[in-house]
Amino acid sequence: MQEKAEIRSKYWLALFLVAAYTVPFGIGIYTDNVFFDLQWLADLTTVILNGIMQGGVYAMFAVGLTLIFGVMRIINVAHGELVMLGAYLTWMFFFYVGIDPLLALFLTLPIAFVIGVLIQKLLLNAVVGGPELTPLLITFGLGLTIIHIVEAIFTTDYRTIPYAPDALQISESINIGRSKIISFVMASFISISVFFFLKIHRIGKAIRATAQNADVAMVCGINIFHIYMITSGLAAALAVAGGALVSIQFGFNPETGVLYTLQAFAIIVLGGRGHYIGALIGGVMLAVIESLISFMIPNGTAMVEIASYGMMVFVLLIRPRGLMGPKEN
Amino acid sequence: MALLDLKDVNAAYGRIQILHDVSLHVNEKEVVAVIGPNGAGKSTTFKIIMGFINYLGGEIEFDSQNIVGFRPDQILGRGLGYVPQGRIVFNQMTVKENLEMGAYIERDQKKIDESMDYVFTLFPRLGERQKQLGGTMSGGEQQMLAMGRALMTRPKMIMLDEPSLGLSPRFVTEVFEKIVSLAKEGLTIMLVEQNAARALEISDRGYVLELGRNRYQGGGHELLNNQEVKMMYLGGG
Fold first, then answer.
1. Contacts of A223 in chain B (CB under 8 A)
2. For residue A220, what is the nearest residue in chain B, using CA coordinates?
3. How many angstroms separate the CA atoms of B50 and A10, rounded?
4. What ipTM was estimated for this complex?
5. Which residues of B touch A208 (CB under 8 A)?
C-alpha cells in the first residue's frame, strides 16, 4: 500500500513539474510573447542558460541550508543573512582594500567558517535535539539581529560591485554576462569540492553518518558536537561564497538576505530536505523556471515569486520529501 | 581479573531511575550473558556504561580505570566496543563506509585496512558486498555489519545488545556461532538477550536482572538448570 502511494506521489510530482514548466509557455502564447522564429529561440536559449548559471549559485548556498537541516534537524532561517553578509564582506574587501571579489574568497571563506562555528557554539549547541521550534526561533532572531547590525553600519542603501560587466558572445545571437559565467564556474567548483569532501574525506563521511543516525555515530566514537561545528562552519562558508557570487551580479542591501533564505527553502523543499544532490538539481530547476517566467510573462517579477513559493507549497502537498529527499517518518 | 566492573550502579532515563545498585563484572576472555524480562534494565546497563543516560552513582571501571563521565569515543579508545540494539547501520552508506565509520577514532590507514581485512575474514559476506548500501541488506547481514563495525577498532571487549532480536532462525544460529568463534579468539563479550536459554548456553556466566536490580547470578549452565530461573525466564520448567 505504502509502496504504491510512494510511487503515485512520484508521478504526481513529475506531472506537476511538467505542468509548471508548460504554464509560462502557455501564458506566453496567450499574451503574444512567444514567437517561433530564430531570434526568439536564441533568446529562449539565452534565458535558459542564464537560468542554469543563476541556479548553480543558488544551489550552492541552498546546499548549506540542507546540510544543517540534514545533520541537526535545524531549520536555519538566518541562512540568507549569511549570504547577505558575504556580499558585504566582499564589497568591503573590494572597496576598502581593493581585493578582487574572487580572490577575496580566500579571506571571506575562513571568516565565514569561523562565524558558522561561533553560531553553533554560542547558539545552536544549546538547542540542538530539543523541540524544533526553539532553534527555528533562535535563528529567526539571529537573522533579524544581523540585518539590523548591517543596517546600522551600512544603511539601507543598495550597493553594487562593478565586476566583469561585459558579456560573452557564445553564438551570433546568444550572449551571457561574463560575471554570470564566472559565478557559475566558481559555484560549480565549490559545490563539487564539497560533494567530494562529503563523499571521500573521513570527516565528510562522519557528517553523512551523523545525518543518517546520530546515535550510531556516537557509538562509532564520532564526537557529534565536533561534527555539528564543522557542518555549521561549512554551511556558513557556502552561504558567504553565495553572497560573494551574487554580489558581483546584483545590487544588495541589508534586507536582500531574506529573499535568499526563502529562495534556499524553495530549493531544498523541491530537491528534498537534507539531500545534497537534490539541492543542486532543485536550485537549477527553480532558477530556470524563474527565468522562463520573467522571459515570457509580462509583469513577470511578481509572477516569479508566486511561482517559486507556489511550487514550494505544492511540492509539500504532493510529495513532502521532494525530488530526492529521504522518506519521512 | 575483572576487565569490566560495575559496583552498585544507579542510573536514570531523565528523572526515572531504572538501575538500582546493579553490580556485575566481566573477567577477561569471558562471555557473560545478562538476561531478564522486559524493563529489567539490561540495555540500560549498556547505555550507562557508554555514558548515554544519567548517571546517579556507583562505580564503573574498565581495564582498572574509572570510566564514569567518559565520552563514547574515549571509551571506545580504551578498547570497549558496543553494538546497539536493532541492527542499526548507516542505511545510505556502503558496507565499506559503515566499517570505516567504525574505525573513526583510528587515524592510521594501515591499521584500518588491517581491521577491514580481519572483519572480512570473519564475515565473508561483508567482503563480497563492500559496495552495497547498508539499508538494502537483510536483517541478519545488518547485524553482522553492526558487529563488524564494532570490531573495527579491535576492542578488548564488546557489548552486544540483543544480537538475535528479530532475526530468522538461520541467522540467529549464525550470530551465536560468530559470538562463540569471537570468544574463542580471546575477545571478551557481554551480551544482553531475550533469547535467554540460547545466550546462557554459550556463556561462561550469567546475570539475571529484574526491575533494574540484580536477581540471580551464576555459571551459564548453572543458571540454565536453576529451577526458579527456568520457571521465570526460560519459559517453563
1. 71, 73
2. B102
3. 42
4. 0.89
5. 90, 92-93
State the CATH number of the domain containing residue A140. 1.10.3470
Q: Tell me whether residue B235 is exposed, middle or buried, using C-beta atoms within 10 angstroms of its C-beta: 0 to 12, 13 to 18, 19 or more.
A: exposed
Number of domains in chain A: 1
Of A205, A216, A219, the CB nearest to B97: A205
Residue with cell 539531500: A275
- The CB-side HSE value for A316 (13 A sphere, CA atoms) comes to 12
Task: List, in sequence order, every residue forming a beta bridge with B19; answer none if it has no partner.
Answer: B11
Residue B87 reports pLDDT greater than 80: no
CA distance A272 to chain B (A): 15
Say yes or no for a CB contact (<8 Å) between B88 and A215: yes
- Note down the domain range covering A85: 2-164+173-318
- Give residues with Cβ within 8 angstroms of A211, minimum separation 6: A70, A71, A274
Question: pTM, whole model, 2 decimals?
Answer: 0.90
Q: At residue A141, what are phi and psi to the nearest 5 degrees?
A: -65, -40
To probe the interface with B, which of A205, A213, A216, A220 has the most B CB atoms within 10 Å? A220
Give every CB contact of residue A63 below 8 A, 6+ residues apart in sequence.
A191, A194, A238, A276, A279, A280
Whether residue A324 is contained in a domain is answered as no
Does residue B58 come out as left (phi exceeding 0), alpha (psi in the -120 to 50 range) or beta?
left
Those residues whose C-beta lies under 8 Å from the C-beta of residue A270, and which sit 6 or more positions away, are A278, A282, A285, A286, A311, A312, A315, A322, A323
Q: Looking up cell 549452565, which residue turns up?
A: B221
Of A202, A208, A220, the CB nearest to B102: A220
Contact A279, A261 (CB under 8 A): no
Residue A98 located in a structural domain: yes
One-letter amino acid identity for B119?
A: V
User: Cell numbers of A32, please?
Assistant: 503574444
Note the helical H segments in B1-159: 42-50, 72-78, 95-102, 109-122, 124-128, 139-151
Question: A214: distance to nearest CA of chain B, Å?
Answer: 10
Domain assignment present for A325 = no
Does residue A230 form part of some domain? yes
Integer-rounded Cα radius of gyration of chain B: 17
What are the strands of the beta sheet with B205-210, ordered from one edge? B80-83, B157-161, B188-192, B31-35, B205-210, B213-219
Q: Where are the beta strands (DSSP E) in A126-260?
A: 167-169, 175-177
User: What confidence score (pLDDT) does residue A328 get?
Assistant: 59
How far apart, in whole angstroms, are the C-alpha atoms of residue A109 and residue A104?
8
pLDDT greater at residue A307 or residue A184: A184
AA letter at A321: R
For residues B119-134, average pLDDT:
94
pLDDT of B236 reads 53
- Please tell me the distance from the alpha carbon of residue B146 to that of residue B163, in angstroms, as a whole number: 9
